[in-house]
Design goal:
single chain; 235 residues
Length: 235
Amino acid sequence: MSTINQKSVKLDKQSFLFLFFLGFLGSIVNNGFMWLSSFLSLGLYLDIIITITLVFIAGFLPGLVCAILSTVFYSIIFYFVYGEPYYWAWYLFILCSIIAVFIIRFFIHFFPAECKKAQIIPADPLDRGKNKHQIFGIFIMLTLLSLAMSILISVIGGLISTGINMASNVVPGNIPPETWFRMGFVRQGFSLLPSEIFGRIPVNIADKSISVFCGYAIALLIKKFWKPKALPDAQ
């Protein structure tokens, strides 16, 4: 009996390390998207595309690891690009990425047939191909997911940004995508908090729509070409 328990613990550790490694790799790719968007001046964050992919294909843990490490790696690169340390309070924006992970898990629970089409870990028993009705259902699910993320992340990000602005006068080395929208609301007489929240909504609608659909598409692509013989249970 003890031998079986020891083997089970060993498998659990292997699963954890495997899923952690997926999150680590995902955070590197996320940073590629983030800095590419900044370099091309797209006015988008593009910071959770692979986070979304990992939650779809492998579950909560790798998505959470990816969400956290993406900001950590971004802060390191930020120092070398802008020549100044990443302000400690900006780490609070990790909450936005973590919330995205929870939102996806919520949708996977309530839209299992649509969400688990992209799932690899564990194997999806509902994967029987797609017909026109299923494709339409997936499109509706991804659209609702994008809107839910846009609204909740705008609110949380606005609250965090308002708190930082009220507590300090630190100016970021780069210009956040929502800056111009926020300034427009301020000019219209809105106070700081609603300006921060409403200024983020149009950017997040575009950003999260692109991120969700791309993240899901990448998950499907990975599932098509990556068919390992044995995979740990990520749930």
